[in-house]
Amino acid sequence: MTSLEIGFLLIGLLVGLVLFGMHIAYALLGVAFLGIWMIRGSLDLSFRMLELTAYSGISDYLFATIPLFVLMGLLVSVSNVGRDTFEVAEALLKRMLCGLGVATVAANTVFAAVTGVSIASAAVFTRVAVPEMTRHGYKASFSSGTVAGSSVLGMLIPPSLLLIIYGVLAEVSIGSMFIAGIVPGVMLALGFVAMLMALAGLAPRFVFADPKAAQERRAEAGIHLSLGEIIWKLVPIVLLIVLVLGGLYTGYFTPTEAGGIGAFGALLIAIGRRTLDRRRLWQVMKQTGTVSVSILLLLVAASFYSRMLSIAGLPNAIETLVVESGFGHWGFIFVYVLVVFLMGMILDSTSILLIVVPIAAPIAQGLGFDLFHFGIITVIAVEIGLLTPPFGISVFTVHNTLNDPGTSVESIFLATLPFIAVMLFVLGVIIAVPETATLFLR
Q: pLDDT tens, position by position, for the chain (442 residues)?
């Protein structure tokens, strides 16, 4: 059996192990270890490669970015910034068609710019936005679907953990990946707003429990805030965004320094708002450690897996196969996106990146793709998987957080379909027009 045949069999084994419930990190480590052993015929080499990867895989200063941004996001979550952002958006947009839906998207967009985790956004705005939207006549399923659909912005608008993970796996600048995500993130948010307003105008029964009553009370809906209250609620989040992203994009901070500054700023906000006692601080620190160690272990496993693929010669073989098959540039990206969609139905977003990026990134580069452009395509395709059944982790997060027997998982999945349609449209535009991702990188 050739090394290529072994490599292809091991990819099948990896997918099978993950589908049967094995943790992705252990599956990657086990398959990579077995692969090196089988290809080189040396158990000692497998152990030495594992030892080398465990150290070199995450020893770089850059990897401190992960725990720092995770800590920043968790501190922002406990400081009630999400609730205040939604209240301001509600006050400003309440007279707009589908105003509370638009407010949810707007608040999610701002919140994403400081957390970078879609699941955090889904959990926060399920508690904040869904009860308020339902109280003002929106269908509970539509309200939940709006939160789930707009929560995926956290994976694209920088700083995003998925962009960090992709940058590490593809060996490209994380700061540049953040910059590449700006225009696509704004496009996605504006697309969601346009879609919500169109649905409210053209299919009000999809949006409202009683369209006529909802229209009559639109002018009175929501809370009323003075200019001073709006400024008071927005100042912390705006300052944090300007501090972190402004310093990062101007080149004043490295990504790691931006994460440290952001975490410190989020700590000051939480202390200033008196939402951080000893118990919550311990929970935040413990959760930061848990999330960070999980991600770093995954990256070590992915690095080991990537080395096994290189030893097997798999990326070069697949690239040759793609070129000789006549697929070409467009055929490859079509098949790749389709594969990511299908994987999104059964795997979480991080697992998909860890499996496909080490294989696909070298092939894409060989076919002439800019790796920053390819990264944005990958992340949006993965994001769509967060909303598609049967896995749909964002949908299940909203459903479990809402804990409402009257709102089924199926109805939330149905309500997210318009968001998926917008994401597919934006993805098509980004694939066809690479400048949407690389505009600020030139």
A: 677 777 778 878 887 887 777 777 888 888 888 888 888 888 888 888 888 877 776 666 667 777 887 788 778 777 777 777 777 777 777 677 777 888 888 888 877 777 666 666 777 777 777 887 787 778 888 888 888 888 888 788 877 888 888 988 888 888 888 888 889 988 999 999 999 888 888 888 888 876 666 565 555 545 667 777 777 888 887 888 788 877 877 778 877 888 888 888 888 888 888 878 888 889 888 888 887 787 788 778 877 887 887 787 776 777 677 667 767 778 889 888 988 887 777 677 777 888 888 888 888 888 888 999 999 999 999 888 778 776 677 777 777 777 777 778 888 888 889 999 999 999 999 999 998 888 777 6
Look up the domain containing 46 and give its range. Answer: 1-56+299-312
Geometric angle at alpha carbon 265, from 259 and 267, rounded to 5°: 105
Residue 315 φ/ψ, nearest 5 degrees: -60, -45
Give which of 176, 175, 184 is closest to 156, Cα–Cα. 184
Cα separation, 353 vs 319, whole angstroms: 18
Which two tokens mark 404?
A: 């409402």
Q: Are residues 118 and 246 in the same domain?
A: yes
Are 415 and 269 part of one and the same domain? yes
**In a domain? residue 10:** yes
Q: Is the peptide bond before 315 cis (omega within 30 degrees of 0)?
A: no
Question: By C-alpha distance, which of 115, 119, 84, 90 is closest to 104?
Answer: 90
Give the residues across from 138 on adjacent strands: 208
Please give the tally of structural domains in the chain.
2
Q: What is the pTM of this model?
A: 0.80
Amino acid at 325: S
Tracing tokens 């707007």 back to the chain, one arrives at 106
DSSP letter string over 191-254? HHHHHHHHHHHH-HHHHBSSHHHHHHTGGG-S----HHHHHHHHHHHHHHHIIIIIHHHTTSS-
Q: What CA–CA distance (Å, rounded) separates 338 from 351? A: 16
Residues 327-334: contacts with CB within 8 Å, 24+ apart? 328/367, 329/367, 329/368, 329/369, 332/363, 332/364, 332/367, 333/364, 333/369, 333/377, 333/431
Question: Under 8 Å CB-to-CB from 153, ≥6 apart: which residues?
Answer: 105, 108, 109, 112, 118, 121, 185, 188, 189
Domain for residue 401, yes or no?
A: yes
